Structure formats: C-alpha cells, structure tokens
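User: I've been trying to design a sequence by hand for this structure and keep getting stuck. Would you show me what you'd pick, starting by listing the structure so we're on the same page?

Assistant: Good idea, let's start from the same input. This is the structure you sent:
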C-alpha cells in the first residue's frame, strides 16, 4: 500500500453516499484519518454506513452529523475532526443537491434551498477549514465539488448551474487568497456520474450520455481518484484548478 495520505486527516462532507463515500474510502485506503460529515448516516443506496465500512476495511474514520447549510454544523465538524485527529489537512466540500426546473418555475424557496447547500456550504466549509489550515505549518488542501454545470449551461438547470458556477470561481479566488499560507484550493467538475442521486433523473442522464464520447457514465471511484490526486502531495504545485471528469462531454 502506497499510503499517499499517511498521517493526514480529511473531512468529507456528504460522505455517506455517492462520490463522497467513494472519496472517504479511497482516502482511508491511502492512510488518511477520515471524518464523514453528512445529514444522514446511512447511504442513499443502502448498506453499511461509510465510517463503519472504512473501519472494517482497516481504516480510521468517524461520523459527524452535519447540515452544510448550517455554519455552526460546519464549524463543529471541523472542530470535532481536529479534536479527534489533531489536524485538518484535507477538506472536501462535496455535499450537494440538484433540482431540475425551468427558470420560470423556480421559486424563492427552491433558490434558497439549493444555494444554501451547494454554494453556502462550500463557502463556509472552506472558511472553517482555512482558519485551521492557515495555522498549520504544512497548510492544507481544499477540494470543492463543482460540476460541468459550473463551466457550461445545461437544460432546465439554471439553479444548479448558478450554484456550481459560483463554486468554480470561488475555488480560483480562495486559491489566490490563501496560497501564501500554503493552502491549495482546487475543484472537481464531474460530468454524469452514476450515483443514487443522479440516477433518479433518467431523462437528464440519457441526454448527457448521448453526448459523451466515452459513451458511458462515470463511476464514483473515478471521481475519488481525481480527489486523491488533488488532496495529495502529488499535486503540490496545483492550485486554483478545476479538474473536469466527464468522459469528454465538454470537449
């Protein structure tokens, strides 16, 4: 085992299911202590909670209940992580939601619900992480979950595109602002990834897959490999970057 994250601690929001679950497991395989922060302990697809699975596989993990729309919850998750493991080296702002609506159908409640999770959660998750990382000699790495919706338009996705566009540019800004303190900030921009959440919308899935050169959906494990690269020292001179993982959809 190479243990590319040996001795490091990572916090993964939305870590109970989908991409977050795969990221938490992959990080633990590479030696990281992992905090799984989510509003739910059980995976969307059913099965064993992520932190329990990580421990059964020989890793170190804990679960913290966290609603990323709550700044208090985010700060508590960071504090709990530092108390348990002594540092916060990697913050993965992964938690997110999606709602397919035409612009004229969007209500203020729809807007606030999605932005509170997708953009506010990333913003204040990063804030809480930076406050710890800037005090650490080795800084840290923040990995934000954006989307191809953060770099191009998609049908009936004005809400989602707005939120992910914000994440895309927030990532660049935070990289510029906190690079001098040794904090790297990057983002992942996945295309269609096969998770319990995305598979709920078959029409959208079909439209994207029809235009994907590799002709298939991505897997959470493929997103996790990209997250591992951005979290590890292998990307030590990479910051402010949005890494597209979409099978060629945006090519």
């Amino acid at each position: 085992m190479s243990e590319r994250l040996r001795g490091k601690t990572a916090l993964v929001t939305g870590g109970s299911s989908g991409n977050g679950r795969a990221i938490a497991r992959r990080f633990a395989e590479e030696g990281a202590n992992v905090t799984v922060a989510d509003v739910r302990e059980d995976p969307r697809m059913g099965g064993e909670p992520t932190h329990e699975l990580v421990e059964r596989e020989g890793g170190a993990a804990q679960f913290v209940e966290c609603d990323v729309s709550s700044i208090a919850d985010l700060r508590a998750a960071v504090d709990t992580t530092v108390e348990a493991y002594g540092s916060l080296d990697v913050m993965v702002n992964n938690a997110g939601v999606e709602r397919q609506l035409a612009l004229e159908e969007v209500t203020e409640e729809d807007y606030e619900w999605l932005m509170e999770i997708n953009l506010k959660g990333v913003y204040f998750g990063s804030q809480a992480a930076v406050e710890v990382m800037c005090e650490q000699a080795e800084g840290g790495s923040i990995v934000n979950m954006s989307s191809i919706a953060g770099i191009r338009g998609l049908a009936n996705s004005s809400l989602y595109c707005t939120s992910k566009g914000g994440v895309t540019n927030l990532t660049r800004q935070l990289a510029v602002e906190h690079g001098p303190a040794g904090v790297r900030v990057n983002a992942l921009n996945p295309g269609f990834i096969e998770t319990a959440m995305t598979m709920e919308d078959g029409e959208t899935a079909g439209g994207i897959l029809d235009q994907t050169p590799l002709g298939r959906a991505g897997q959470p494990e493929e997103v996790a490999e990209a997250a591992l690269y951005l979290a590890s020292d292998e990307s030590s001179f990479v910051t402010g970057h949005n890494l597209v993982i979409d099978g060629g959809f945006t090519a």
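That's my pick for every position. To get oriented when you compare it with your attempt: Helices lie at 18-29, 50-56, 71-85, 108-133, 158-178, 202-210, 220-231. Residues 28 and 59 are 5 Å apart (CA to CA).
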